[in-house]
Amino acid sequence: RSLHCTNEATIIEILAHRTIAQRQSIKEAFKRSVGKDLPDELRSELTGNFEKVVLGLLMPAPVYDAYELRNAIKGAGTDEACLIEILASRTNDEIRALRTCYKTEYDRDLEEDICGDTSGMFCRVLVSLLTAGRDESTTVNEVQAVQDAKELYEAGEARWGTDEVKFLTVLCVRNRNHLLQVFEEYRKISGRDIEDSIKREMSGCLEDVLLAIVRCMKSKTGFFAERLYKSMKGLGTTDSILIRVMVSRAEIDMVDIKAEFLKMYGKTLYSFIKGDTSGDYRKILLELCGGEK
Questions:
Q1: DSSP character at residue 251
Q2: Cβ contacts of residue 138 below 8 Å, gap of 6+?
Q3: Rounded to an integer, what is the distance from CA 164 to the centroid of its chain?
Q4: Are 246 and 53 in contact (CB under 8 A)?
Q5: Distance (Å, rounded) from C-alpha 205 to C-alpha 140?
Q6: What is the pLDDT of residues 232-271, one digit of tens each?
Q7: How would you describe this protein's topology in the membrane (predicted)?
Q8: What's the CA gap between 23 and 7, in Å, rounded?
Q9: Cα separation, 16 vs 290, whole angstroms
């Protein structure tokens, strides 16, 4: 039978409470028993933001990342914020997987596409992140950390003009524990938080991507909590960001993001979503959010 007079409640009930792996099984079972593609069927039945959430939930994580990146690049103008959010926050494995999916799904090279759409030092930072070459060990080299902090200070605050390559080399390559130590040392040397220095020294997309890297290193859940907050506060909602974060983090760290959101803003993520959205779109986001607390 077709999905006419679609039962949205059932769709929400089933999709919001399954793992990504289970949703893939549901897609296969649907095709087997109906001889049709579930995403295609839903696409013809649903509309708007609700449809975007549902289709996002049906994609494996790297496929969804690749899809979001493709949409950020193709067409007029580039959604740099999307490129930054995804590439600054994903692990090496996640980046390798999304690159492969991008190639498979679109028969295009992600690095080439990004280089065709961005330029200068911003482009170089994204390319560095795309190599998935960050050290993911947990060891901190104390001497190196002091050296890194000193070089960052000398590359920025301490001179006319900024040696941006130094920031790239340290922020895109070193491991998280090491960078947290570098940020500590940097504060000792300069009397400033590294974020403040980046804001003073850089501008535009380069500033945004370096800040995103620093924030993800300090607290990835804090980074996403802030993305969600900014997507909803003030006039209007930036649904593309709200949807992407809710869908892509649902199975990874949503519980921690909610806790962080409450700590940072004194209100629950649930109450924010409830106040900012409506209809089935609101219902499915609240299910993904997972209750008031």
A1: T
A2: 175, 176, 177
A3: 23
A4: yes
A5: 29
A6: 987 788 999 999 999 999 999 999 999 999 999 999 999 9
A7: Peripheral membrane protein
A8: 17
A9: 9
